[in-house]
Amino acid sequence: MTPPLIRLETVDSTNAWARQHPDQLGSLGAVYATSQTAGRGRLGRSWQNADGQALYYSCALHRPLAQPETLPLLASLVAADAIAGQFGADCAVKWPNDLLLAGKKLAGILCEGTGGGWIIGIGVNLAQPAAFFAGAGLPHATSLAAAGVPVPDPQAAADRLAAAFTDLFAARLPEFARSGFAPLRQQYCTRCINLGRRVSYQGGAGQALDVDDDGRLVVRDGASGEQRIFTGEVSVCGIYGAL
């Protein structure tokens, strides 16, 4: 059975809409728009609206998950694979779930628990020119178009990408629900730009070595030995201007 996929012209927040309309989305369903007026990113950050030039997407899940805390990592792989499949753009993942194209942020992901389930919000920059990001004070962000990927019709691109996201979530959730992150670990590590680089986090810094089966970033910290990080902000040397 094909999951419901609802298109809106504009919305305050697709995550908020999904939370308010569980009856329309069922156990797995999605909503999307190309204009979002009150979006949020991780750690309470706002998401700059780009009317008609970006995809704002939320997938609602109402089913038991073996390892729900790793849902953002699954979402990053779904998003990266869908973008590659639809546009031929090969994204890297900055742990845990930022998508980078040519070293700049293309997409962000926000997962939230709600009413016995989860909502996965994904925002993807599709057609904004480089001047949009310069004017918004976002020098480390990009869009598909700004990175040289042709996006002649942003609405058609949003339609294709939203459908691809939904299809991939439907295909991959059964195994993820049973087994969690471990079966995805190798694929995730292949895309993870943190690995082998110097990173800093609250309380320390060191070289990122691995991502373990629980989705934690493994860091060799010269001061205190090996650390396994699961929450908080991690900066990566050479990414987003970090030194």
**Rg, Å, rounded:** 17 Å
- In CATH, the topology of the largest domain is named BirA Bifunctional Protein, domain 2
Number of strands: 12
Task: Give the uncertain stretches in residue-range form.
Answer: none
Largest sheet: 7 strands, mixed
N-to-C CA distance: 49 Å
Helix content range of the residues, please? 25-40%
Counting helices, strands and paired strands, the structural category is alpha+beta
Give a written overview of the molecule.
The structure is a single chain. With 243 residues, the protein is an alpha+beta fold. It folds into two domains: 183 residues, BirA Bifunctional Protein, domain 2 (2-Layer Sandwich); 42 residues, SH3 type barrels, CATH 2.30.30.100. Helix content is 28%, strand content 28%. The strands form two sheets. It has a seven-stranded mixed sheet, sandwiched between helices. It has a five-stranded antiparallel sheet with strand order 11-10-9-8-12. A hairpin with a 2-residue loop joins strand 8 and strand 9. The longest helix has 26 residues. It is globular. It starts with a strand and ends in a 7-residue tail after the last strand. The relative contact order is 0.15. The mean pLDDT is 93.
